[in-house]
Amino acid sequence: MKITVNGNEIDFTLEGEKTIGDVIEELRIWLSGTGMLVGDIEIDNQKITLDEGFSFKKPVEEVKQLSIEALSIRKSRIRQLETARDFFTLLTDSAKAKDSDTLRDLESSYQDLRRILPKILGEAPDSPIVSGLEETLGQNHQKLISNAAAMLKILDHRLREASDPVAEAKIAAAALSRLAENLDEVAVNFQIGKDKQAMDAIDELCETLQKFIRCLTWGASAAGMDNLINDINKMLSELEAALVVNDTVLIGDLLEYELKSKLMELPGKMKFDLTPTQ
Is residue 277 domain-resident? Predict the structure, then answer.
């Protein structure tokens, strides 16, 4: 059996693998050790999806060629995001057309996608981004369109972050610096009872910080950034704890005397000399 990875034939010695599924699992383990994931799979020039379990049960002697596509984690995530975006685009179009047959066909895929969305988006399992989606497609069409449009916007943002993390990290750093200039005002708003304005500003700050950190995970790093990111994460944890107990005095102090100076430093530290991870 001829085995290729990204079009290149490899020397793979069978050691007790009886089925194609056994071979693919060994290749998956080998690739993971190099930071790569299995993408598309072809058995004798026929593309196979992961849910086609019967193909993986084929004895190795019945297969002449196995072709594996190896992807980096970043490229794999980009593909997942693109697939999710295509799904929600079709969902939106079907809801607008009130195409009940297509919506019914999309139902099972929607359930599967909704379960893995937190991972695809880099969110916690209980993220409000996902929990805001209805559990099924059997709902008011207008609400379905609204929810799908909101998810499409989020997916587009995540795609930009994964596709060009350096540019997006620089944009986030500049935004954080601008937001930092008004953190004194946020603290004052808490003091004078304008809690909503203060919380809106904190929400925007936290969302931008999360975007910045996500971009760094895709390889948009710079020398000397680790300590700064660790400091920011520590302060965010302290800020979260203060928000939980509604300690507005502590919240104001953290924003004004801790986070502000760190965030103002960001643009000057954004000296990227690394390319994004492939």
Answer: no
